[in-house]
Structures are given as structure tokens and as C-alpha cells.
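Lab notebook page, bench 4
Experiment: in silico fold of construct C2
Operator: M.H.
Input chain length: 96 residues
Purpose: comparison with the prior construct
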Amino acid sequence: MTMDFGGAIRALKQGSRVAREGWNGKGMWLAYTPGSEFAPEFVKLGHAAAFRAKEAPNEIVRLLPHIDMRAADGSMVIGWLASQTDMLAEDWVVVE
């Protein structure tokens, strides 16, 4: 059963992975990553959050919710952004 982008977003927020039938890459999918908070001393060196921790070493680091993608080569794209084609597509499916 296919859906539009709004349906795909709702499915993501309910914990499902989604993909487009029209994507050429095999094994590609999206997943919702909820936000998190942690003390600056737990930031991994080399991560963007390390810059935030350095700016305010006594404040909790907050990562906001975002959508991540598994790319065709198996790597993870953190903070995936939809194209206009993706947003207007009606071939979104839940990935089991």
C-alpha cells in the first residue's frame, strides 16, 4: 500500500521505516530519530555537538529530532532532507 509524504511522515513518527518505490538504490530507507539530551562530557570528539559543548560547557547538549536515511551503500545519512520530488511523490511505503 503506497502513501503520500504526509502519510510517510506519520508512519515515521509511529516508529516505522519508510522508502519510496521509485528510489533506484537498493535497501534505502528513512527512519525518525527522536531528540536527546546529554551532559557535555558525553559528547564524542569530532561530532558537531562537540562544538556546542565547547560553547557552553555547563549546559546540557540538546539534539533535536530528525530523519536519517540508510543509503544504497549501507552508510547512514544523518539529517536527511526531502527533495520536492520526494515531498510530492505518492509512492511511499512502509519498510518491514
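Observations: Residues 10 and 16 are 9 Å apart (CA to CA). Strands lie at 17-20, 29-33, 36-38, 61-63, 66-70, 76-77, 92-95.
Next step: discuss at group meeting.
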